[in-house]
Design brief:
The structure holds 2 protein chains of 2 kinds. Chain A is mainly α. Chain A has one domain. In chain A, 73% of the residues lie in helices and 3% in strands. Chain B is mainly alpha-helical. Chain B folds into 2 domains: 66 residues, no CATH class; 121 residues, no CATH class. Chain B is 48% helix and 10% strand. Chain B has a 3-stranded antiparallel beta sheet, with helices on one face. In chain B, strand 2 and strand 3 form a beta hairpin. In chain B, helix 2 packs across helix 3, helix 4 runs antiparallel to helix 6 and helix 5 crosses helix 6. Chain B is globular, with a radius of gyration of 22 Å. The chains are: A mainly alpha, B mainly alpha. Strand 1 of chain A pairs parallel with strand 1 of chain B.
């Protein structure tokens, strides 16, 4: 098997696997019961799915300029997704969009209720 | 917008000279690299254009300099990255597997993890990475005590929660050993006992 064909096959495999993972992520977003659980689906299979699609594209295009661009997309996806999912999860928890009946342990609600303050919003304030 | 030629960007704007002194070579270089990558070709026009754009961006949106003491250990860094890639794959497969079992309703937990180190940089990196490794998502981060509040996916009992805690502390340990200047706090192998149960006891 010549290397070009091998790269093509690897690229196609990556593209299909990435598309499947992204599909599963979409199903998870529909199926899971509350926002926080849905963010797991939006953060993990979605990111890996995109990375696989990018890898597949890189293997198929084999062009340095395109690969540089794909690396940038991957880097920014990896750095921004945790921040985005954190912000969505934080807002949803604070606005009560949580299925407490599905939690086996909750160590945050008491903290939030006890202080009535955003934990980080008041830096320097001594905790009681 | 108030008067043409005014160099202030609003009421809290820095004087132009301060902005010039605040220019950071690393930031300029990185922005130029991004610009060249976006154009997809290494030519002198691209590099020059990138430099001009980077200069304008840094002057219009000045950021305080990052005072981070890093000591990069290449082998440890490589190990950290390899483990991270492996964890991302495991995390995706785990979530995907639970997703396709349509009858199953995952049980979750929200837990508190106190990080051992008191470096903001380590807190940031750990929080970023924790969101992509199996089971965890950051809900809250408290900078004063370096505590992360995590939403743990698909956990049934205390054993699973303890495993998650030691997993996060292990990740912290790898980050500090790979990048941190001060490794005193994580020198002994991560054991679950390290976690102090007193919440916010002494937030200094």
């Amino acid at each position: 098997m010549n290397p070009v064909l091998a790269a093509d096959i690897a690229g196609v495999t990556c593209l299909v696997a990435g598309a499947l993972l992204t599909l599963v992520a979409a199903i998870g977003i529909l199926r899971f019961p509350d926002v926080l659980t849905r963010m797991h689906s939006a953060a993990k299979p979605q990111v890996l799915g995109l990375l696989l699609v990018l890898a597949g594209l890189g293997l198929r295009l084999r062009d340095p300029a395109a690969i540089g661009l794909l690396l940038l997309v991957a880097l920014f996806q990896l750095t921004t997704t945790p921040v985005a999912s954190h912000m969505v999860g934080r807002a949803s928890f604070r606005s009560g969009q949580v299925r407490h009946d599905l939690l086996v342990l909750d160590e945050l609600s008491d903290v939030l209720a006890g202080r009535g303050q955003p934990p980080d919003g008041s830096s320097g304030r001594p905790s009681g | 917008m108030t008067s043409p030629g005014a160099r202030r960007a609003g009421d809290r704007g820095l004087p132009f000279v301060t902005r010039l002194h605040g220019l950071q070579v690393a930031t300029l270089a990185w922005l130029t690299v991004v610009w060249v990558a976006l154009w997809g070709g290494l030519s002198s026009a691209n590099v020059l254009g990138g430099l001009v754009v980077a200069l304008v961006v840094c002057l219009v949106f000045p950021l305080p300099p990052l005072r981070v003491h890093l000591r990069i250990r290449p082998l440890r860094l490589l190990w950290l990255l390899l483990r991270f890639v492996g964890d991302v794959v495991v995390a995706s497969v785990q979530v995907a597997w639970v997703t396709v079992q349509f009858r199953r309703q995952p049980r979750n937990a929200v837990i508190e993890v106190d990080l051992c180190t008191d470096s903001d940089f380590v807190l940031t990196v750990v929080a970023e990475m924790v969101s992509l490794v199996p089971g965890s998502l950051v809900v809250e981060a408290r900078r004063s005590t370096h505590t992360l509040y995590l939403h743990v996916f698909d956990v049934r009992n205390g054993a699973g929660i303890d495993r998650m805690r030691s997993q996060v502390l292990g990740l912290e340990r790898r980050v500090v050993l790979a990048l941190g200047a001060d490794t005193r706090d994580v020198r002994p192998p991560a054991d679950p006992v390290t976690r102090s149960t007193s919440t916010g006891g002494a937030p200094s």
